[in-house]
Amino acid sequence: MTDDGTTAAAGATGTLGYEQARDELIEVVRRLEAGGTTLEESLALWERGEELAKVCRHWLEGARARLDAALAAPAENGGEPTAGNGSSNG
Predict the structure, then answer these.
(1) Which of 16, 29, 53, 86 has the fewest C-beta atoms under 10 angstroms from its C-beta?
(2) Which residue has better confidence, 82 or 20?
(3) Quick check: 21 and 58 in contact, CB under 8 A?
């Protein structure tokens, strides 16, 4: 980490997991809201926040696509539930 709280290797943003990016984004927002930083530091934090927001959006879009695919799968099988769905006809 550099003195302004941003990660030195901004190119490594793409390797962050969702939780890591979210947690760092929360910290960036907290620091921006607290104030007391120079204009340069604030701009660097803002830019880092934008990068982190993109990472979070990427992960959430991927999760949405996987969820949509999973929900569409029963419809592709003629509407039949898949085996092991936990329901019982008792």
Answers:
(1) 86
(2) 20
(3) no
- As a whole number of angstroms, the distance between CA 57 and CA 51 comes to 10
CA quadruple 56, 59, 62, 68: dihedral positive or negative?
negative
Distances (CA, A) of 54 to 18, 28, 38, 81: 10, 14, 24, 35
Structure tokens at 68: 């949509």
Q: How far is CA 79 from the centre of its chain?
A: 32
Write the CA distances from 8 to 4, 5, 14, 48, 90, integer angstroms: 10, 9, 14, 10, 60
Looking at residue 74, what is its pLDDT? 77
Q: Does the predicted model carry a pTM greater than 0.90?
A: no
Nearest to 16, CA basis, from 59, 60, 66: 59
